[in-house]
Specification:
Blueprint (H helix, E strand, L loop, with lengths): L2 E4 L4 E4 L4 H10 L1 H9 L3 H22 L17 H16 L4 H16 L6 H19 L9 H6 L7 H15 L8 H9 L19 H27 L9 H22 L10 H13 L9 H16 L5 H4 L14 E2 L9 E8 L5 E8 L6 E8 L1
Antiparallel strand pairs: 1-2, 3-4, 4-5, 5-6
Helix pairs in contact: 1-2, 2-12, 4-5, 5-6, 6-8, 9-10, 9-11, 10-11, 11-13
């Protein structure tokens, strides 16, 4: 058997020309054997190469053009609890309206830059810029041609203190402060790219479809596991975005740490589950994913101290904000199930076709703002929006 040395893996690579050699590779080094077997799938190799170039460009933009301000550079009181509550409000509004979560992440970036560059001087400015940031982010990251967000709906959220002219004027000022750079790579964007590096079980069997007797069940299992990982990771990213102590960590590492946390969560669920057939990742899939992340995304979960620190921070943060059960059992693809925020409660009469949701926050001076949103029974679009002070 022929052997060649390689500098990348600092080990010996065995020629896999025969099936017996392939089994020997897998038994001796599962990570290396996985990479060799995966190279047989040309489509998968092309996808990995495309992901590598995309991630390189995104990480370059993340560290240069769209570098986020540090939490120590955000003046009081526009950090800490104020920032957490306003970003949570953004996520609440986006999720209840079935909009893209990346819009809230981008809006938080706009808001942080506006605070850092002195565009905000008062609490009223903070509220106005927050509304404008979300309005602008929905234009950039959502589908305005398909789901039109009326400006009047945002004006109603201002409790009559804001007008459409105020938002339009602030939108122009915000764009100038951002330097017309409106497409920051969010943690959601990195998550989407990282999920393409997650291998499916069918790749372990190469290109021979006869090895797996039930390809349909295997594909369903792969999709279910991928959706669960995505949902848990999205929840972790949301919690990290709302807290300013994560601003010092690049969003690329936050997204990777969220996936690692999701994988660990599924492993624990599988360990304590009475059913061994529940969807989960195999050891081969986890090892292959870690190998791809190290060589494609240049992120090593074992030697990168920032990744390890971020995983620990996510664990502490989510300890106080447990993962909703809907993140694990939800079957809707590509989104979190609608959930009530931790400080929300339902009020009003039991309408037959309408549902009331209340989000309450404290503006720091003891004057809370209550937002009441009533939706149709299909929950597709807001039927009525009211804003009240108490």
């Amino acid at each position: 058997m022929r052997e060649t040395s390689t500098n990348i893996m600092d080990t010996k690579m065995i020629d896999c020309s025969s099936p017996s050699s392939q089994q020997e590779v897998i038994s001796s080094n599962s990570c290396l054997g996985s990479s060799i077997l995966l190279s047989r799938d040309s489509a998968d190799t092309d996808s990995v190469n495309n992901t590598r170039s995309t991630l390189q460009h995104m990480r370059f933009l993340e560290s240069t053009t769209y570098k986020r301000p540090l939490p120590c550079n955000l003046p009081e009181p526009f950090n800490g609890l104020w920032r957490q509550q306003i970003v949570e409000w953004m996520y609440t509004l986006v999720k209840h309206c079935n909009l893209r979560l990346a819009s809230a992440a981008a809006a938080s970036y706009y808001l942080d830059v506006a605070v850092y560059k002195g565009l905000i001087q008062s609490p009223n400015d903070y509220q106005l810029v927050a509304l404008t940031s979300l309005y602008l982010a929905l234009k950039v990251y959502d589908s305005p041609c398909l789901r039109v967000i009326k400006l009047g709906s945002f004006v109603k959220l201002g409790n009559g203190e804001l007008s459409e002219d105020d938002i339009l004027r602030m939108e122009w000022d915000l764009i100038n402060v951002l330097g017309w750079r409106l497409n920051p790579p969010t943690a959601n964007c990195f998550l989407q790219q990282y999920l393409t590096l997650l291998p499916s079980r069918r790749l372990f069997h190469g290109e021979d479809p006869t090895i797996s007797n039930n390809n349909t069940n295997s594909n369903n299992n792969n999709n279910m596991v991928r959706d669960r990982i995505k949902n848990i990771a999205l929840h972790a990213i949301e919690q990290a975005t709302t807290r300013d102590n994560f601003l010092s960590i690049p969003v690329s590492i936050i997204a990777y740490s969220a996936i690692l946390f999701a994988i660990e969560t599924l492993d624990l669920q599988q360990y304590y589950s009475s059913s061994l057939s529940s969807p989960h990742l195999t050891c081969w899939q986890v090892e292959t994913f870690l190998l791809r992340m190290a060589h494609v995304a240049n992120l090593d979960s074992t030697s990168n101290p920032t990744v390890l620190r971020c995983v620990m921070l996510l664990g502490r943060t989510l300890k106080d904000n447990p993962i909703p059960a809907s993140c694990i059992i939800n079957k809707r693809k590509g989104c979190l199930a609608e959930q009530q925020p931790s400080k929300s409660k339902a009020i009003g009469r039991p309408y037959q076709h309408l549902q009331s949701v209340v989000a309450t926050s404290d503006n720091g001076y003891g004057n809370g703002v209550t937002v009441v949103e009533r939706y149709e029974s299909d929950k597709n679009s807001p039927k009525h929006v009211e804003v009240m002070r108490y």
